Inverse folding.
């Protein structure tokens, strides 16, 4: 019996060690700079364990305490130590920081096996820093924590180098059939993003609800997420379905990310279900089918990645069809009290989508599968004020006009 007990304990211990030997999900995007001896941490607050922040107070917090220890907590830097660095919110609930391993923990970079950590609310509430925190959603009992949340862990062997992180474009951007049209226009400084739904990661939309969706949210970041435009930020574009489940948008790099095209190296992105179901925007999405498990993620999907140097060039300047469509786009009456009509030329009976936003960029109305030349827009719950109507055809040609509600 004693031998059996020892054997069982060995199995349990081995399982516990193995269970901890994965990098936590909220650390996806964290990477190593071995030549510099530094680590660039990226914490995704959206992947927080819900029990660690039951009232949702952490979203929007500008900085959080970084409480960590190297090599299974053998060398600890507490969040409120003089040498501790804070985790800074980049404005989209992604927290970042960079440390030099030798300076920070007194451990040579080559001797580092793991870092365990908790990102807490100390700066917002120093008197009660541990009530809410960013933690792993795995079972905390493996760390002796009675809650369902674990301390975060970064395993060196799991973590990519920053130079190797996402250095090839995702297949979903390049279709073997030639249907995808992702490209770069150096002359205009614009990029067209075109995602082929047929090459998405199946697990990210296991029920197939995105097929046929009129548009998807475009959540993206330039140059390894250094400049982020959230899918629901004012001014964010939507990826419009061309009728064949290719979702695309054209963006002006300077206007969108605040940098010239020549400074853009890559774009990380996710196409989510936000425009169709804002409350459950992240339940289904278009993601890369490559293995996200290399970061300890239990699902095999990664964020979509575009390397600008791999993209073909194209002409994305305003075309004749854009000009013709804009010229024919009329609204009457305008201003209006109860209803108005939008009219435009459509001799080929093409299919259009109409998206109406307020002046902050928030979508207030969406209409799809428009095939005529006249659209009735009812006021319904639109308040008095000015709105923007965007008319988009299947080829991405568009026209914009203002609506005024009295």
């Amino acid at each position: 019996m004693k031998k059996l007990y020892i054997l069982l304990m060995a199995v349990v211990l081995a399982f516990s060690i193995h269970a901890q030997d994965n990098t936590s999900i909220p650390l996806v995007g964290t990477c190593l700079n071995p030549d510099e001896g530094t680590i660039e941490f990226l914490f995704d607050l959206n992947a927080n364990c819900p029990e660690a922040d039951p009232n949702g107070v952490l979203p929007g917090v500008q900085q959080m305490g970084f409480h960590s220890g190297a090599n299974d907590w053998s060398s600890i830097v507490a969040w409120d130590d003089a040498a501790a660095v804070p985790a800074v919110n980049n404005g989209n609930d992604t927290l970042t920081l960079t440390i030099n391993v030798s300076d920070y923990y007194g451990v040579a970079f080559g001797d580092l096996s793991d870092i365990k950590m908790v990102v807490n609310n100390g700066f917002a509430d120093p008197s009660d820093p541990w009530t809410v925190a960013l933690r792993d959603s795995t079972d905390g009992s493996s760390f002796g924590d009675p809650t369902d949340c674990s301390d975060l862990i970064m395993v060196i062997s799991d973590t990519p180098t920053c130079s190797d992180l996402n250095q090839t474009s995702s297949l979903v951007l390049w279709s073997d059939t030639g249907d995808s049209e992702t490209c770069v226009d150096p002359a205009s400084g614009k990029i067209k993003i075109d995602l082929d739904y047929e090459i998405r990661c199946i697990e990210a939309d296991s029920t197939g609800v995105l097929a046929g969706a009129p548009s998807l949210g475009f959540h993206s970041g330039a140059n390894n997420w250094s400049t982020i435009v959230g899918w629901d930020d004012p001014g964010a574009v939507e990826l419009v379905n061309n009728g064949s489940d290719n979702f695309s948008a054209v963006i002006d790099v300077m206007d969108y990310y605040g940098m010239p095209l020549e400074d853009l190296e890559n774009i990380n992105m996710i196409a989510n279900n936000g425009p169709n179901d804002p409350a459950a925007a992240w339940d289904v999405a278009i993601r890369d089918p490559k293995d996200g498990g290399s970061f300890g993620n239990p699902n095999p999907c990664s964020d979509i990645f575009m390397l600008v140097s791999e993209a073909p060039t194209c002409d994305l300047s305003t075309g004749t069809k854009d000009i013709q469509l804009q010229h024919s786009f009329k609204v009457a009456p305008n201003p209006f009290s109860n209803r108005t009509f939008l009219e435009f030329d459509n001799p080929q009976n093409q299919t259009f989508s109409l998206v109406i936003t307020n002046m902050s960029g928030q979508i207030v109305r969406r209409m799809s599968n428009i095939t005529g030349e006249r659209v009735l827009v009812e006021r319904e719950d639109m308040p008095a004020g000015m709105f923007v109507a965007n008319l988009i055809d299947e080829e991405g040609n568009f026209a914009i006009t203002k609506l005024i509600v009295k």
Notes: The chain is about 10% helix and 35% strand.
